[in-house]
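Re: that chain you flagged

S.,

Sorry for the slow reply, it's been a week of failed gels. I finally had a moment to sit down with the sequence you sent. For the record, here it is as I used it:
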Amino acid sequence: MKTATEYRLSKKINLEQWPVVIEDFLSQENLAIIKSFIDNNPSVWPNLSADDYWEGRSLYHNSILNKPVQDIMLDSMNQIIAKIEEHSGFTKIYSDLLSMARWPIGYELIPHADGEEPDNSPHLFPWRLFGSVIYINDDYEGGEIYYPRLGLSMKPKSGMLAIHPGTLDFLHGVRPVTSGVRYTIASFFTTNDSKALKYDKSSS
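Prediction finished late last night. Pasting the C-alpha cells below so you have them in one place:
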C-alpha cells in the first residue's frame, strides 16, 4: 500500500478501530524530562512568522540538542510503529517525520487528512498512511482535537497518544488555543521505505 488513497479504496480500514487513543502513553518521568527541556530552553523556538504557519512552532527531532528528549521521542516513535502494525496488519511501517510543536494562543488547524485532500487534488504527502500525536501538557484552554466525520472531539490529557489513518475518513482539526501554550510531538508513517527518515541514537 503506497498511498493513503489506495489504503482507503482498498476497504481494509476497520473504521471502528480508529483512532487509537492511549492515555498515559508517556510516563510521568518522561513527561517531566520533556517539560523541563521546554521550560528551561525558551530560546530554542524561533520567532513566529505571519507568513509561514509552522515557522517558529516546530522543532525537528535532530535539531533538539538534548539526548534524553531525543531518546524519548525515538523510543515513542518505535512504540507507535508497533501499535500501528498491531492494529493495521501492516508488517513494515516507517516514519517520515518526528517533531515537537508548540501552539500559542490563537493557533488552530482546520480539518485535514494527513495523506489526502478533500477536493481530490494531489496531496503533498500522499504516502502518509498514518499520523500520530503525543500530547505533552494539558494546562491550556481550547486546543481540542476533533474528527468532524466521526463526530468526535477530545480535550487531550498530558501523556496521551492519538493515532489515525491519513485518509479522508479521518479528517481532523485542532480548535483554537484560547489560553496557555499547547505542546505536542507529531509523527507520520508510511509503508514506503524510500520515504523513511533515518534515526540513529548514536548521533544524538
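What I noticed first: The longest helix spans residues 67-88.

Talk soon,
D.
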